[in-house]
Amino acid sequence: MSLLQIKNLHVEIDGKKILNGLDLTIEKGTVHAIMGPNGSGKSTLAYVLAGKADYEVTEGDVLLDGRSILDMAPDERAAKGLFLAFQYPVEIPGVATMTFLRTAVNAQRKKRGEGEYSTPDFLKKVREAAAKLEIDPDMLKRSVNVGFSGGEKKRAEILQMTMFEPRLAVLDETDSGLDIDALKVVSEGVNRLRSPERAFLVITHYQRLLDHIVPDVVHVMSRGRIVKTGGKELALELEARGYAQYAEAAE
Amino acid sequence: MNAEVRQIRTVAEQGLLDSYLASKAKLPGAGDVMALREAAFKVFEQQGLPHRRIEEWKYTDLRAVMRDSKPLALPPDAKAKSRAKDAGQWLAAVGARRIVFVDGVFAPDLSDLSALEKGLTIGSLADALAKADPHVLKILGRASPAKDDPAVTLNTAFMGDGAVIRVADSAVIDKPLHLAFVTSGDKAVSIFARSLVMIGKGAKATLIESHEGPAGIEYQVNHALELSVGDEAQFDHIKIAHEGDKAIHVGTLIADIGAKARIGDFTFTTGGAVVRNQIFMRLGGQETNANISGASLLRARQHADNTLVIDHAVPHCTSRETFKSVVDDEARSVFQGKIIVRPDAQKTDGKMATHALLLSEGAEADAKPELEIFADDVVCGHGATAGALDEDLLFYLKARGIPPKEAEALLIQAFIGAAVETIANEALREALMSEAERWLAARG
Ligand SMILES: Nc1ncnc2c1ncn2[C@@H]1O[C@H](COP(=O)(O)OP(=O)(O)O)[C@@H](O)[C@H]1O
Ligand SMILES: [Mg+2]
């Protein structure tokens, strides 16, 4: 059974149609990339998968392991193994990163009927993951994302992903705002997690991320639908020719 | 102007008048003390209870709230003391010296009076009044900033017992002092306690003042604390209104602060049906720094009002006022803060802010921050916000697998934590945050 199936998805916000019959199927162990011009609805798709309110699904369905998730609350979806790395991670003053990570990891584990991590196990895991992502341990004591640079925020998202061990990770423009070194660190963080049981949906505007995280399938999105699907060479073609052929009235 | 002659008294007002006349002979002190009481009583007789047409009380109409007055509490008997023996013990982790007042009366047998630090004296106000202690009489009721306040006036007429605490010049009292006021009984009573605290020049001390009592009983507490802090002293005062859910609590801090002092004041409110916390603070010496903050956690139909007047009387003082409230159900939070900058008080730096987090449709927050500035070379400002939890932050937390109630709790703790952080004593910060956690855990 496919890990994720999106069928004929139509989504509106405030009466404005944003997704217009989007279809997408992702198998375990694969990396899919979605590329598309600004405003084509990529973040909307990511948010709808994660369960953000405000978005109204007017038609279609989203199945994880063959079960519809549209009626599930965001925290239940997370416990089922869905992870979204936000394009714009929010700052949460007064909530220490470490407390947050631990609350989140244990909440997910509890919901899955797994035991909570012991403090030493948890700390060890966080420290190892942070070191690999070149995250200063002092950052973990600070409030979630507060005062982090753009690049630090993106690395912190990948740190969370590493801790949660999701089954489907949606990365929304994780490359934006990263210099080439940070891009490498983040990509390696993602590649380390690639496994036959896990899939990735990598949303990006630029081809360069896909040099590091090599996708199995590339989709082009325009006006709220997938308009073309191909192999990784499709990304190179887009880089060379731009999105003009998928003309977007970028509002 | 409220110059009208009021002929019609409320039941509560009439009850207080009757109560005073019946009991004044038994209240501690004669001579000068009695003269103070009589003068205060006359004012009360004319003015009655404060009501919404008096600007300072417009959000907390005590006349409407007090449907009747309760009989004055009797001195506690052995049973009352036994019920009261754990008063304030939920703060035990702070390791403070606990001084217990049962139904307003000093209970030395329940208090920790052993091995008093050098320079620290602890006594009973009732004793001092009965003995006409000249040091006490000299300062009692003299604190100017609150002379006309109706709650203090009523307190002066009825004051029974309370703490008299002195910290000598240069004395450093590391162990916090904890005045634990407890209403012991299962009967609705009224309690009028008055405390005097004098912190000497260059001294250092922390004073916790907690108020608690039984649930389901409509008792009434009026406490007034007169505080003087000497030059170069460091003093922290933490007041905790942890009253029973049917109680009416009116508490006043009247403070006169010297030069180059450092003041930390915190008011924490979780209990009580109607709570009015008043602070009248006069910064009367230069280069003093005062941090005055508070946090309230309110639910059901609770009403809590923090009213403060910070009087910058001299140049070069800094004050920060930060009050936060979390308001659930049909509860209501009120903040009225005024910074006064006198004509002489150039280079005053004063910033006041109040923030309310509204957790339900029926929750309400009223804020009235004011500046009264008579000097021209000052930096002063104020701000007030009220709103719900940030949906984007909540979504982020939920998207990480944190259930909605827990996500809200994290954000509420963060909100309150930013205020509690200003408390210098770490154990106390932790105790108050644990109390906030208990409050959150009890949220439906
Ligand atoms: N909360 C919102 N309210 C109204 N319009 C929105 C909202 N979020 C997104 N949109 C609109 O939906 C379209 C798609 O946005 P988005 O999904 O962010 O695109 P992308 O991520 O591909 O740049 C845009 O036209 C955007 O203006
Ligand atoms: Mg986007």
Walk me through the structure.
The complex is a heterodimer of chains A (251) and B (444). Chain A is built from eight helices and twelve strands. The mean pLDDT of chain A is 94. Chain A has helices spanning 42-50, 74-79, 97-111, 119-132, 150-164, 180-193, 209-212, 233-241; strands at residues 4-13, 16-26, 31-35, 55-64, 67-68, 82-85, 92-96, 143-144, 168-172, 199-204, 217-222, 225-230. A six-stranded mixed sheet of chain A has the order 6-9-10-3-11-12, sandwiched between helices. The longest helix of chain A is centred in the middle third of the chain and has 15 residues, at 97-111. Chain A has a single domain (4-250), classed as Rossmann fold, CATH 3.40.50. In chain A, α4 crosses α5 (150-164) and α5 packs parallel to α6 (180-193). In chain A, β9 (168-172), α6 (180-193) and β10 (199-204) form a beta-alpha-beta unit. Helix content of chain A is 34%, strand content 29%. Chain A is of the alpha/beta class. In chain B, β1 and β2 (105-106) form a beta hairpin. Among the domains of chain B are: 32-285, no CATH class; 392-444, no CATH class. The termini of chain B are far apart. Chain B is an alpha/beta fold. In chain B, the strands form two sheets. A ten-stranded mixed sheet of chain B has the order 2-1-5-7-9-11-13-15-17-19, with helices on one face. In chain B, strands 3-4-6-8-10-12-14-16-18 form a nine-stranded mixed sheet. The model of chain B has no long low-confidence stretch (mean pLDDT 95). Chain B is globular and about 70 Å long. Classes of the chains: A alpha/beta (251), B alpha/beta (444). At the A-B interface, α2, β7 and α3 of A face α8 and α9 of B. The structure holds adenosine-5'-diphosphate (ADP) and magnesium ion (MG). Adenosine-5'-diphosphate is lined by residues 13-14, 16, 18, 36, 38-44, 251 of chain A. Residues 42-43, 87, 172-173 of chain A line the site of magnesium ion.
